[in-house]
Specification:
Order of helices and strands: EHEHHEHEHHEHEEEH
CATH architecture of the largest domain: 3-Layer(aba) Sandwich
Number of domains: 3
Strand order of the largest sheet: 5-6-7-8
Oligomer: single chain
Number of helices: 8
Radius of gyration: 22 Å
Number of strands: 8
Structural class: alpha+beta
């Protein structure tokens, strides 16, 4: 909902402190060394709340429709049904969902405003033209899709895994301004930085520079992208047992964490996703796999992994996932270990 900032010009929190600190760093930069700022913000993230003017900036009547909850959770990972049962949001009206979703977008609007302040500081300091700027997120949020809020750590719906990426290169780097449909992974960001800075990475990595995409030379950057998450049974160190929200149903993240810490079901089992432009395949260690035809089913409501009509596609996606595992499963250090 709306956060009360009182008589202050902003709602004072960690994000604003970090943004204002970054602006001070830019204004006080003396040019002695190259400047690199990594500004990690928590917004937009539960709990859902934002101050004015951002809270009222979103037209509640213009929101796109939510992805509906499945009629049954058959074919979907068990943790989604478990979270739905614990969050107990089935009785929410669309007006209430609209308020939550507008608040989330208001939080995004605040981040956009803060980015503008950073850009303004760079311009005032004369640094903007020579600066590479990357804006990205580590994950998305259900925010009402499938009747859920928050996230999971081992399901791969587009609302969680298809995150924004904005890239502005320094002056002199070829660029074709546009929105690209290229399939991109976050590991491509450091590869792009290496390319811009002329750095040869001293280790094996699997990122691909985005500069050809930025230049408009191509949009077929990758044939597939990948995600993985979850844990093996018995991996207590991966249960987030230290999180206070796990300990009581009143905890903000209890619906998810209470399942992640259990081994009497497949809730937090390991999984890996392979996504192409049209298909999404999820290999699961302890429950049924998933396959979605994103062209016919963009909302990912119908798991067709057992549909004979998709048997060839399933074989191709499994083969692609296996190839990815082989390519990325092990690396050899560039320098020999001095102990041997």
């Amino acid at each position: 909902g709306r956060l009360d900032k009182g008589d202050e010009p902003i709602y004072c929190d960690h994000d604003w402190a970090n943004v204002l600190g970054a602006i001070d760093a830019i204004r006080n930069y003396d040019g002695d060394k190259p400047l690199c700022l990594y500004l990690c913000l928590s917004y937009p993230h539960p709990p859902y709340g934002v101050e004015e003017p951002f809270h009222s900036a979103i037209d509640r009547s213009a929101l796109p429709p939510r992805r509906p909850a499945p009629e049954s959770w058959e074919g979907k990972p068990a943790i989604l049904k478990g979270i739905a049962e614990r969050q107990r949001l089935q009785g929410w009206t669309e007006d209430r969902w609209a308020e939550l979703r507008a608040t989330y977008r208001g939080m995004c609007s605040r981040v956009d405003h803060q980015l503008g302040l950073i850009v303004q500081a760079l311009k005032e300091k004369g640094l903007y033209d020579d600066t590479a700027l990357f804006v990205f997120s580590d994950h998305g949020d259900f925010t009402g899709d499938y009747g859920l809020v928050e996230k999971t750590q081992n399901t791969f719906e587009d609302c969680l895994t298809r995150v924004p990426l904005v890239l502005k290169p320094p002056e002199g780097v070829p660029v074709q301004p546009r929105v690209s449909d290229a399939l991109v992974e976050l590991i491509d960001l450091p590869a792009t930085v290496f390319d811009l800075a002329g750095i040869e990475a001293p280790h094996t990595h699997f990122g691909k520079s985005l500069l050809p995409v930025v230049a408009g030379e191509r949009d077929d950057h990758r044939d597939a992208v990948f995600c993985e998450g979850g844990r093996l049974k018995g991996e207590r160190h991966a249960m987030e047992l230290e999180a206070k929200s796990e300990q009581t149903p009143q905890g903000l993240y209890w619906p998810r964490l209470s399942l992640q810490s259990r081994d009497d079901g497949p809730y937090h089992g390991k999984a890996a996703m392979c996504r192409t432009a049209r298909f999404k395949y999820v290999r699961r260690l302890y429950e049924s796999d998933e396959l979605y035809d994103l062209e016919r089913d963009p909302q990912e409501l119908h798991n067709v992994v057992d549909d004979a009509a998709y048997s060839e596609v399933l074989a191709q996606m499994r083969e692609r996932l296996l190839t990815w595992f082989l390519e990325t499963a092990d690396v050899v250090p560039f320098q020999p270990d001095r102990r041997f």
